[in-house]
Specification:
globular, mainly beta, 71 residues
């Protein structure tokens, strides 16, 4: 398990403020969620295990997904 300092910084434009986000593991389980309330949002993934995760934002009815790798 990885208990280090894994802070992920997400930069968005003004139109995405208020959009909901989720971080999902490879089994489809949500490990973190929240709202994008600033141009720069910091996500603390220090308690998640090593692996590949997916950052999803629901924006105007569309899911935008990016991969996150935790070493």
């Amino acid at each position: 398990s990885n208990l280090g300092n894994n802070i992920i910084t997400v930069k968005t434009n003004d139109t995405m403020f208020g959009s909901n986000y989720s971080v999902i593991d490879q089994l489809g389980r949500q490990v973190l969620s929240g709202k994008l309330d600033n141009a720069i949002t910091s996500l603390d993934l220090g308690l998640v295990k090593t692996g590949i995760y997916f950052f999803q934002v629901l924006y105007q009815g569309e899911k935008i997904t990016k991969s996150i790798i935790i070493n």
